[in-house]
Amino acid sequence: MSNKKLRVGIHGFGRIGRAVARINFERNAFELVAINDVNPDVDNLAYLLKYDSTYGRFKGEAKAEGNAIVINKDQRVHVFNADAPGSARWSDLGVDIVIDAAGRPVLPGELDRLKAQGVRHCIVTNETPLALPVKPVIVGVNHETVSVADFALSTVTCDANAFVPVMSLLQEKFGVDYGSLTTLHPWLGYQKLLDGRALPDSNPGHVPSTYVLGRSATQSLIPKTTSCIRASSLVLPWLEEAFVSVSYRVPTAIVSSADIVIKLSRPTDRATVIAAFEEAEKKQRYPVLCNSHEALVSVDFAGTECSAAVDHRWTSSRKAGQLKLILWYDNEWGYGSRVVDLVDHLAGLHG
Ligand SMILES: NC(=O)c1ccc[n+]([C@@H]2O[C@H](COP(=O)([O-])OP(=O)(O)OC[C@H]3O[C@@H](n4cnc5c(N)ncnc54)[C@H](O)[C@@H]3O)[C@@H](O)[C@H]2O)c1
What we know:
Strand order of the largest sheet: 5-6-7-2-1-8-9-11-10
Number of helices: 8
Order of helices and strands: EHEHEEEEEEHEEEHEEHHEEHEEEEH
Shape: globular
CATH architecture of the largest domain: 2-Layer Sandwich
Low-confidence stretches: none
Distance between the termini: 10 Å
Helix content: 25-40%
CATH superfamily of the largest domain: Dihydrodipicolinate Reductase, domain 2
Radius of gyration: 20 Å
Mean pLDDT: 95
Bound molecules: nicotinamide-adenine-dinucleotide
Strand content: 25-35%
Number of domains: 2
Number of strands: 19
């Protein structure tokens, strides 16, 4: 952990923005000095920070005071109400890093407006198109390639944060020929309680290829395509051709799972695979991979900070090289923890 705290602003104070704020409240990795949201109701933003149906009550005090949320009486977090990241006046607060968690398409002009305000980095909490000058970062796999000169960074997706470290390790230890990935992802805020129009409110540019995401989120397992392989191949390009995939939106509020079947290049036994994951957990700088041997269900992983917990009750292998793995990951808290790790890593680089 670096000594010098960077000053951070969060653009988009939704599930991920608030998870990052709460995680930082516990870890104190940076100074949260501002947030920006299209929601103009500061009382409502403070209320949403304070009470959370998934993670419970905020562990400190949080109170709206004019155009700020005051945390524990002495930490004043200014609240902007702009609809684009570059329109909030981050420079008034000396913001070093803007975390873009609004879920809107990233526009190069907006990145320029942030730079012009003296912001040193923008971290986007989603996969971004290859055409943009945004570096994809999976903490635990390629974060050490980040330099102070990298202005725009993306922490890609929660699924990629779970999948890439696992695949990176397996490729290094045993080689991976090909595989199949099925992710199970909880509902997201833009889905519907009852059947309706399939348009994500937080991502108006994105039209689902089918109408299934407009179906009641509470009543069905909803099969859909996943961006996980494409997003993961931004960091490990060999994954693109090696994997087939599918995803299900499942009627739960939190914690994703990945069901992976792989053909290893160098077949090995179950115990050797488990030992490789146990060793990786011990050696890592940030808590990216963890191992589980208990009889747990998805909700038991809520609030878990690792990017992927490998549930070794289901780890199995065959002599021909087949390997099956089940991962669990808190799609908000685990992912948000990596965003905080990346800020911590940048703080170390800036000294
Ligand atoms: N929820 C997850 O599991 C998860 C995991 C990893 C990454 N992500 C990504 O993080 C991003 C945010 O997801 P989320 O689940 O937190 O969404 P959310 O809808 O809960 O939060 C988005 C927030 O941004 C605000 N907002 C929207 N447009 C804005 C604008 N133009 N200007 C200012 N504020 C704006 C909204 O009012 C809301 O508070 C998305 O890109 C999503 O794909 C989500």
